[in-house]
Amino acid sequence: METVLKYNKAAKSFSEALPVGNGRIGGMIFGGAADELIRLNEDSVWSGKLRHRINPDAREGLAEVRRLLAEGRVPEAEKTAFEKMQGVTPDSRHYMPLGDLNIHMELGGKISGYSRTLDIENAVAEVHFSAGGVEYTREVFVSAPDEAMVIHIFGSEKGSVSLSCSIGGREDFYDDNRPCGDNMLLLTGGNGISFAAVVGASAVGGEVRTVGGDLTVKNADEVMIVLTVRTSFYSDHYEESAEVDAEMALSCGYDELYYRHTADYRELFDRVSLELCPNSGDDVSCLSTGERIARLRGNELDDKECVRDIHDNKLIELYFNYARYLMISASRAGTQPMNLQGIWNEDMQPTQGSRYAVNVNTQMSYWCAESCGLPECHMPLFDLLERICENGRITAREMYGAQHGFVCHHNTDIWGDTAPQDTWVPSTLWCTGGAWLALHVWEHYEYTLDKEFLSEKYHLMREAAEFFTEMLVSDGKGRLVTSPSVSPENTYLTHEGVKGCLCIGPSMDSQIISVLYSAVIKAAEILEIDSQFCDVLKTQLENLPKPETGKYGQIMEWSEDYDEVEIGHRHVSQLFALHPADLITPNSTPKLADAARATLVRRHIHGGGSSGWSCAWLANMWARLGDSGMVYEYIKKLLAGSTDPNMLNSYPPFRIDGNFGGASAVIEALMQCTCGEILLLPALPDEWSSGSVRGLRAKGGFVVSMNWRDGKLTNAEIISEFGGECRLRLDTVASVLCDGESVGSRIENGVIIFGTAAGCRYTVKA
What CATH number labels 58-88+355-570? Predict the structure, then answer.
């Protein structure tokens, strides 16, 4: 299994630096030999406190905009909306870096034998080189158990490590930077959210002391540097807590810290493993990770057919494992969920504020959390959703006159700001972000069957649905629709040739609300509550628009069969019903599946998937249609065209969502959970002819492992964690055994159905 990113030179830019993190503290390691730079982040260092940004004229504007849209006066509706409904302060708060950690080493002689690696199996970065006849090694990890970044530096000769270390790089955004002990420095600052970062060091041999604003080490055999940080977002005693964290870490030996870190990390990482058959054809072992990514693109002399013949399954395997590494490193229980850059942002004023974009990007970042067996990493999203719900109740009431429920538009921040963000017509006034986020509550339950969690978080789904029971309006055709809204970031052309974004009843809204209402009804039945409210939802559900086919044979994006201004647009919002929902599947709705295929083909031939996250979403959609060739093409395109040398997304500020979307596409090719069924190898690319996967989680509380050869399933193992009925859809005849004995099963419409007992293992033999 590929688990090491490797390079033969230091990073020159952020796109080459290597990320480490423990969910809360993040660092980007550049890996200079003499001069190391680590760009630092902490997940709660944002630019200020919650802003109340709701436009006081919103209620009046809502009525006007609805009337103008109903009359077909789109430009006037958009003008009015951005006068009376847009936030009075357009922007919520933005994410900020913590600063830079600089380490200068005193070296003698020319540097040689340089290597830089990131071992994602153990979550440890390493730099190795020689200078003046001494071999030096620098290891870096961020420990979740000890709440500290740990840097270990040692040389092959005693007394060979001398260095100075400092923290800064926040321009003028800090208050103080000075020693706070004989071997520790303290950096404080913040705006609305205050922080305290401590850098301390201990050494074997030699001397450690502070000199001005630096830590210095002279003639040590080995050195351990720790960085800790706490903020006022989590505690009023943040400065004291940061110092205590550093003192506790420094009181331990490096081996002790390393053991606790790797044991904690590997308990999560080792839950899943993937092996794909090698198919590069060339020996790529001598290439750096960046060179392997570049290799997939071919060169200027290669035509498309030549590029199609360049393969590297092991790089795809590494990419999949890297996504799991990033999630464990950036989203732990008790931390903040991953924003557009996770916990790896170098800009004081990042593009789009490095916020939470909830019209696909934030959701995509958690698509593989449950299926990769990382439900704990999903938890921070629900903590943020609680804050969104609290603020969203106010926004629902003041903007839309809804007395119940909550709303969130297309962006939010650490405080859960729910007012319209930005002043961009194609995205700002989209009212369904909170509803989509609330669906993650149901998704977590479907995988874990955690009834206690469902009971605790049910109100988030209920309140998201409540808002729409009051907000929806009639479209004059007997249907209930949102108004005003947009199909995220896309622009249509009316039959009269007028360009517009704001609209009545975009398809994505109706699809999200349909899935939400259905989830609330199912959850209420499980919890045996809310029968009267569910009767309201059932009635409205019947009147919500269903996916429709347009003049090109495509799934319509708007309630009218408008043309798109940009046919190859990066968003494919009208196919929410295909993925991540399962309102459209080839088995249950074959005609709509054909229309979904026509939609994707139309996008494809007009350049769709131009950004990393968009490319990843398209790969997931092709997998749902069972088109293994297009899945492989888009995963390869994602790697070759939208991935930086450090394997992060190359479309700032969207650094990580493409990674998670790509990992989700790999899983969707190997296993799908739709319509109550588990599909094994539903879209296996020909290029992945042989392989195995261990530990995937399926809805219903099942753990799935399988082997395949020559493109066909050979055997699978299914562990039933809670018992219940298992429904398997296979493209082959198979038998089901438990402890070597045949299990009574039946086949209905090509689905193998059998009962399971909690804790038992079932072997499926093809």
Answer: 1.50.10.10
